[in-house]
Amino acid sequence: MSDAVPTDDACELTRHIETRYHARHRQQLPPLAAMAEKIETVHAGDDHLPIGLSDLLRRMIGEMEVHMKKEELILFPAIRKGGSPGIENPIAAMRADHDDHATEVAEIRQLTGNLALPDGACRTWIALYAGLEEFIIDLEEHMRLENDVLFPVFETRSANDV
């Protein structure tokens, strides 16, 4: 998808975000949290252990589910109808959630030493960090598409309606 999204394509973009990113995040996070918990248990005492990562990922599961449901049930249907007065309010809430998600990504990076595996990492640890890297790339692209491509179309339209 290009970065310039005509309003006519916003409907298609919302569906792309739901099928490509929302569905994928729902698949990615639970096994990542389970792997993190396993590593925190099995490797207790390891100096490189990402202590608290499983808790962070479990918290993100809940927060992201709420965020994605708000998009799927409120914001995206409004966008598909061409927007409405006041649409900038749910968009502002989504942007604030994205800021929180970016903070959580920074926390993941901090806990994992920027996803640097310790020498002799087990297969689960390797799979966890590979999965986290994929999740972070997906999440950052998801947020970029919304923040930089989708939302500005409706924020500008809403500002012009005033």
UniProtKB/TrEMBL annotation:
Domain Hemerythrin-like: residue ranges: 19-153
Protein name according to UniProt: Hemerythrin domain-containing protein
UniProtKB keywords: Cytoplasm, Iron, Metal-binding
Any single Pfam family the record assigns to this protein: Hemerythrin
Record GO terms (molecular function): metal ion binding
InterPro entries, sorted: Hemerythrin-like, RIC_family
Subcellular location: Cytoplasm
Entry keyword annotation includes Metal-binding: yes
Membrane-spanning intervals of the chain: none
Main location: cytoplasm
Entry keyword Nucleotide-binding: no
GO cellular component: cytoplasm
CDD domains cross-referenced by the UniProt entry: Hr-like
